[in-house]
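User: Could you go from structure to sequence for me? I need the amino acid at each position, not a summary. Structure tokens:
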């Protein structure tokens, strides 16, 4: 089954609501049936479409060789789901907040260059998205790996800390990374993060960064 079909089977928000699976199919099909290592931030605790539904979708899509990890801030929810479903799917859980930079750095230190795919479907607040990208992309994504950030429209939603043209939003942060990738001006000081990006795609409500 295609990822679009599997999304309909498991009824995740990735396809039915946001239509991200059409992009994921293109980025992830080469990993299907391999020993790909994936980390998704956000298990879906408290969401109406259900906890861990994307885990079941990823397991069926990538197959038994895949290593699937989740990072979730709600430990009570995560542990309950692991007992009910996660262990059968052979998923590894980690608990911590995207607001906790020391935690993210400690996590990154334990998983250096481990993951082929990271999907940020966590809290979607500006600090969550920027902290995770800044800490995790340079450290734990392998060369050629893909880092996806879902729901980037929250940069324009005040309840997520967003605002149009506010310099602290993810969108403005991504614009600065584009400057790092494209500028040849001797006065432009490029960030370390920008120097690691091979390709960068922004699509409808989602972006993808591939590591050099």
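Assistant: Here is the amino acid at each position, in order:
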């Amino acid at each position: 089954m295609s990822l679009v079909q599997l999304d309909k089977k498991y009824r995740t928000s990735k396809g039915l609501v946001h239509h991200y699976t059409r992009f994921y199919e293109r980025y992830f099909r080469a990993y299907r049936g391999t020993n790909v290592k994936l980390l998704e931030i956000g298990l879906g605790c408290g969401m109406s479409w259900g906890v861990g539904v994307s885990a079941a979708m990823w397991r069926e899509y990538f197959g038994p060789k895949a290593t699937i990890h989740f990072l979730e801030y709600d430990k009570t929810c995560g542990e309950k789901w692991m007992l009910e479903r996660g262990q059968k799917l052979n998923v590894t859980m980690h608990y911590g907040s995207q607001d906790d930079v020391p935690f993210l750095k400690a996590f990154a230190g334990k998983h250096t260059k481990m993951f082929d795919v990271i999907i940020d479907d966590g809290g979607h607040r500006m600090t969550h998205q920027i902290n995770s990208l800044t800490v995790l992309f340079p450290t734990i994504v392998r060369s050629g790996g893909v880092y996806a950030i879902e729901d980037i429209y929250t940069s324009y939603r005040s309840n997520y800390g967003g605002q149009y043209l506010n310099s602290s939003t993810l969108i403005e942060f991504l614009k600065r990374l584009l400057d790092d990738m494209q500028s040849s001006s001797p006065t432009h000081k490029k960030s370390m993060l920008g120097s690691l990006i091979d390709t960068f795609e922004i699509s409808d409500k989602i972006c993808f960064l591939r590591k050099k």
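One structural detail worth keeping in mind: The CA atoms of residues 118 and 147 lie 5 Å apart.
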